[in-house]
Amino acid sequence: MGFTRFIAMGDSLTEGLSDRYPTGNYRGWADRVADVLASQNADFKYANLAVRGKLINQVIADQIPAAISYVVPNQTILSFHAGANDLLRPKLILPEILESYVSAVEQIAKLDVKLLLFTVREILNPKSKIEELWNLRFMPFNENVKQTARAHQATVLDANSAQVFGDPRMLAKDRLHLSSEGHRRVAAAVLNELNLPHDSDWRDPLPPAKVTPRVIQLGVNSLWAVAFVIPWVIRRLTGKSSGDSRVAKYPTPINWPIDTLN
User: Fold this and answer.
1) Are 22 and 262 in contact (CB under 8 A)?
2) What is the CATH number of the domain that holds 93?
3) pTM of the full structure
4) 48 within some domain
């Protein structure tokens, strides 16, 4: 029978930022995987519960109960990615985040599903204190993901397994979320793990990037700080989140694909 359901949980990565349909709606790797799954089974349904900005305990409380209720045993793919937003906060208690992650996976691993987990890209040869801090936080997070996956026979999509995912062009203009090309390649990596049709070039390096003159790059960096860094700092200072008052784009399993998106 194959897979008749795909239930995706998490934050902005799974919601699809910053990969858009022609309509402006976010697409992302999960929608792209759903496209292929739908082509394999006429009874396929898809739910995407992910909401940008959500912390791990919010994902656990808001998304896992719904996801559990939607599972069809032995016919469901369930993806889970949460905790990255916690690690981006100025203050955190890392052991608590790692423990919450393990607890979440333990809940869903009891189900008869194909479970997908994800690591976060680490920075090779960090050149600044911020890049060093990124690795200090995400390296133990990634190891926790892999250990948890081994304990529960889950599949890990490791962002550090292919060099191309370290190419800056895999990221959108905000330098945080995936670009359309990044999402396309993540989708292909997922489909590869599922032994389903996929773009075979997902590991291939991009062509050499054009060299940007230093003056222009300084201007680009300044615009990036104004457009993305300052709003992020303001949200931290005011206790707000990019996910406040937002709801999941497909909160219940629906027939897929949706023709009006294209």
Assistant:
1) yes
2) 3.40.50.1110
3) 0.92
4) yes
